[in-house]
Amino acid sequence: MSHPALRGDHHVHSTFSDDAVATLEENVAAAERRGLETLRLVDHVRRDTTWVPEYLDAVRALRVPEGLTVLTGVEAKILDAAGTLDIPDLPSGIDRILIADHQFPGDDGPLGPTAVRERIAAGWASSDVLDQLVSALVAAMHRHPGNQLAHCFSILPKIGLSEDDLGAERIDAWARTAVATDTHVEVNEKWGCPGRPLLDALRAAGAVIVASTDSHEAAEVGRYERVAALLNEDA
Q1: pLDDT per residue over 130-160, tens digit each?
Q2: How far apart are CA 27 and CA 33, in angstroms?
Q3: Which DSSP string corresponds to the chain?
Q4: Which of 6, 33, 162, 183 sits most deeply, having the most CB atoms within 10 A of its CB?
């Protein structure tokens, strides 16, 4: 029997994001065809984004088929080590913010992967890099409780590290914070993360795990391979 989380897709982009091609309507139709029970429509925002009210109006105008629950979200990157998010003032109606590690949360702002690799090569200890990343994630969850982590730790391979480098203490602190702040954690099809040891830690802590494709076109909605393999190991 497949894992119940696979009945939902909690990270689906539309043309409100500049890198997606599916409309909101096409995503809903795809979710219906896939037999999903839950769909979270999500698009990228920055501090200067102004279209969120228009997006919410468009979601409210959708024809939602019986048996499908449509939720809303916006995806914002962590900007710095203090857990600041690149997000505008939001009107009511956004169910969850997706907290994303698109770049590395530096002391004074986001760092691209190349800059982090260069600093590591120049002597920045990997343990300090990992401490700063996990600390920023924890801070973001505390500053913005009741939200969702998007493709968490996808930044690690980009900077030459991996989830295997995190260690039990960091993973435990991260998982316990997710529970304490009512933060959902998505298992992301596109990036294949978080991996099995982190999912085990989330389960042990009692965190809510959801599935997501991070789709940018309707054909991808609800189509799981990597996520299904991770979640169904214990199903």
Answers
A1: 999 999 999 999 999 999 999 999 999 999 9
A2: 10
A3: ---GGGGEEEEE--TTSTT----HHHHHHHHHHHT-SEEEEEEE--TT---HHHHHHHHHTS-PPTT-EEEEEEEEEB-STT--B------TT--EEEEE-SSEE-SSSEE-HHHHHHHHHTT--HHHHHHHHHHHHHHHHHHS-S-EEESTTTHHHHTT--GGGS-HHHHHHHHHHHHHTT-EEEEETTTTBS-HHHHHHHHHHT--EEEE--BSSGGGTT--SHHHHHHTT--
A4: 183
Predicted TM-score (pTM) of the model is 0.96
- Per CATH, domain 4-48+64-223 is 3.40.50.300: no
Domain boundaries, the chain: 4-48+64-223
pLDDT interval class at 235 (50, 70, 90): very low
- Give tens-digit pLDDT for 10-34: 999 999 998 899 999 999 999 999 9
What SS3 string covers 167-192? CHHHHHHHHHHHHHCCCEEEEECCCC
